[in-house]
Specification:
With 729 residues, the protein is mainly β. The protein is globular and about 80 Å long. The protein starts with a helix and ends with a helix. It comes from Chryseobacterium populi.
Length: 729
């Protein structure tokens, strides 16, 4: 218990020190008047980090800049997270990015930090944002310039963990009068290695499996953004994004024991390809000089994943026989979407936004499984299915924002969504679901005085199942240990509340409470077939509800004339998960088989603790060498599937700037402590333990070259009509 107390003591001692020496406020002298520039502040429904006034925003890229932004963390150098949120959704200039996670990562790492004006962190997004559950939003605001010309970036990088993984990318931006074009391309080759240790059982038997997964990947992707300014009021834009990933000869090799006796060895060979293409056409009309505008979008998304595998079980003991089966698990997703938004601003400070959107999605999942019998493969009708899923979502939303006086402002909104979906497992079963959701939103902000402000936010959201979760197919670790997707899973309803307090634009506190109805998670269900064969089936299903209370304390501050920049945060949480799963909705009766499922009980009440410490130190006075020293610690945390063990990571980085060249060396998780370890025990004594070690220590060497006019304006970023769908592929 000493660690939380020590962190809290550091937090409040820093708060006292800030009253003596407030380095966070930049001072500029203009005609005898001192103007204080606020680097980090709370405004309306968001936290704003003024990158242009930050000493760490020189000679780096946008992703590295986000890592140093208050309330944002990156544990592995690949993903971003807002503390206390499910996921992060990236917006640029108020428009959601139109690319998948890998392409987005490449874009962020290739965009120079000098192009960024500010970063907005929206912990509870308003009704106009297309987000789900308790997702947070990061909005990147680019600098504006009307200069004609071109610029670009070339980047090469190599990450070394268990394997060496090279990659590279390029961007090219062009502007000439009314035309603006941005293009990007990235390519990579990486091989992932994971080591597993799995065990489950009860007082009558014990299963244990250990082994590794070797997954080679080759990928390339890119984007084209074209913006044409027809005149001062009308603009037309087009966006295209694509990504291709190939993973051939991925091998999962697992040795299995039962009651301490070696039984068999399972080897799974898998070949997979993923193709993703998306298009968006945008038209914008400015209706007055106050910022009012009408925006419309038409979008199309095509996603195709082909996966084939051969699973073989080799006997070790005389009690087992050789067995094998083949799987083909393709998925095709087609999405058509459109939306219209009208933003109205008045001279008296009133802001209205009214919008409507429509999404139609069709997924085709034709799964086939063949089992080896008498030296030939024959179809297994129980695991072969053709699943067609269709979904239509019609949404209407409205928000109203107003500043009542110099101290009080607010934002009120609501979003109404009508969802109609049908699922058909051809020749077997099907379902129809129609449901409507009214999702209110409220935000109130009160400025107590120059140094203190407080706000309250309420939001309601829905989390629909990801499309891959609905596809009724299995992924096997062993013949009796596998994951099972669930086409019958229901959408979950989220209610989010938050109180935020900020002191002197450097110290902040967030108190949040989230309630989830019809909550879902991937749960380990155990059972028997004919009283003999025991199985462990991981299935994502609804179980009940959960409640989470969290307190985040943070500090963003510079010291010693901007030589040392700190970004510290602590999160204390209390979670309650409750529910019971007594049946498997995907289970289909098989003649001659009797399946008995052990009830899975969720009754979790626990405290959890997380802290993050980021330091950037400017070494010489000419600002061309920087040292990064970062650390995070996540204490034990009980979730629906069990108790997660301690995770921590100590990272170092050194950056050298030489004109247009930037050289960066990074070391992540130097002590190899950032891996997954889960222990789950049920009231009846059954247990399920998982250790997944992904070789988290990574050494990364990268070089970036920027060329051309670095003050060139980016194209107008456009919101895609199918933004909410992309996150579910």
């Amino acid at each position: 218990m000493k660690t939380p107390i020590l962190i809290a003591a550091l937090f409040f001692s820093g708060l006292i020190y800030s009253q003596q020496k407030p380095d966070t406020l930049k001072t500029k002298t203009l005609e005898g008047i001192n103007l204080k520039k606020q680097v980090f502040k709370k405004q309306s429904d968001r936290f704003i980090y003024d990158v242009a006034s930050s000493p760490i925003a020189k000679g780096t890229n946008t992703f590295s800049l986000l890592q140093q932004t208050p309330m944002i963390s990156s544990i592995d150098g690949k993903t971003l997270k807002i503390m206390g949120k499910s996921e992060v959704v990236i917006y640029i200039n108020g428009k959601k990015t139109n690319m998948d996670s890998e392409a987005l990562l490449a874009m962020l790492k290739s965009t120079p930090s000098e192009d960024i004006q500010k970063i907005e962190v929206i912990t509870v997004p308003g009704s106009e944002f297309q987000v789900e559950s308790n997702d947070g939003v990061i909005n990147i605001v680019m600098k504006k310039s009307k200069n004609n010309g071109y610029n670009g970036t070339l980047k090469a990088q190599n990450e070394m963990s268990y394997y060496s993984n090279p990659g590279g990318g390029a961007t090219f931006n062009f502007k000439q009068n009314k035309w603006s074009v941005n293009t990007s391309f990235n390519v990579g080759s990486w091989r992932e290695r994971e080591r597993y240790n799995l065990s489950n059982g009860d007082n009558t038997f014990k299963n244990k499996s250990f082994g590794s997964n070797d997954d080679p990947n080759k990928t390339y992707g890119g984007s084209v953004n074209i913006d044409y300014e027809i005149n001062k009021k009308h603009s037309l834009g087009f966006t295209y994004n694509m990504r291709y990933n190939k993973s051939f000869n991925s091998i999962l090799d697992v040795t299995n024991l039962e009651d301490g006796v070696l039984r068999n060895r399972t080897v799974n060979h898998e070949d997979a390809q993923t193709r993703n293409h998306s298009f968006n056409l945008n038209y914008e009309i400015k209706t007055d000089t106050l910022g009012s505008k009408l925006t419309s979008n038409v979008s199309y998304l095509w996603f195709n994943r082909d996966k084939v595998s051969l699973n073989q079980t080799f006997p070790i003991s005389n009690a087992d026989e050789y067995g094998a089966f083949q799987q083909s698990v393709p998925q095709i997703i087609n999405n058509y979407a459109a939306n219209i938004d009208y933003l109205k601003k008045t001279a008296k400070g009133h802001t209205w936004l009214v919008g409507v959107s429509y999404n139609h999605t069709n997924t085709d999942n034709d799964t086939r499984q063949d089992v080896l019998k008498d030296e030939s493969f024959v179809n297994d009708p129980n695991q072969t299915n053709h699943f067609i899923y269709k979904e239509n979502i019609l949404a209407a939303y409205i928000t109203y924002e107003r500043k009542f006086n110099e101290k009080l402002s607010g934002k009120l909104g609501t979003r109404f969504e009508m969802t109609k979906s049908t699922g058909d497992i051809i020749g077997k079963t099907g379902f129809d679901r129609d449901y409507n959701n009214l999702l209110p939103y409220l935000n109130l902000n009160y400025t107590i005085n120059e140094n203190n402000s407080i706000s309250y936010t309420f939001s309601s959201r829905v989390r629909r199942p990801r499309f891959w979760e609905l596809n009724p197919s299995r992924t096997y670790f062993t013949p009796t240990n596998y994951t099972q997707n669930n086409p019958f899973i229901l959408a979950s309803k989220f209610y989010n509340q938050e109180i935020s307090y900020m002191f002197k634009n450097a110290f902040y506190a967030n108190l949040s409470f989230n309630y989830v109805d019809d909550a879902s998670s991937q749960l380990p269900l155990q059972g028997t077939i004919n009283g003999d064969t025991k199985f462990l089936r991981y299935i994502r299903t609804n179980y009940g509800n959960n409640k989470q209370l969290g307190l985040t304390l943070g500090m963003n501050k510079t010291w010693f004339k901007e030589i040392w920049t700190t970004n510290y945060s602590v999160n204390l949480g209390y979670a309650i998960y409750s529910g019971t799963v007594t049946e498997d909705p995907t289970s289909v009766p098989v003649p001659g088989q009797v399946e008995v499922l052990s009830p899975y009980v969720i009754d979790v009440k626990n405290f959890n603790f997380f802290t993050q410490i980021n330091n950037t130190i400017r070494l010489p006075s000419k600002k061309d060498w920087f040292l990064g020293v970062n650390y995070f610690f996540a204490g034990k945390n009980a979730i629906e599937s069990g108790e997660m063990g301690v995770r921590q990571s100590f990272d170092l980085s050194v950056k050298k700037i030489m004109g247009n060249w930037t050289f960066l060396a990074e070391a992540y998780d130097i002590f190899n402590q950032n891996y997954t370890k889960i222990k789950g025990v049920q009231p009846d004594g059954s247990y399920n333990n998982i250790t997944e070690f992904g070789y988290p220590r990574i050494i990364s060497i990268g070089v970036t070259y920027n060329f051309g006019n670095q003050k060139l304006k980016k194209t107008r970023e456009m919101k895609s009509a199918n933004d909410a769908i992309k996150s579910r592929t």
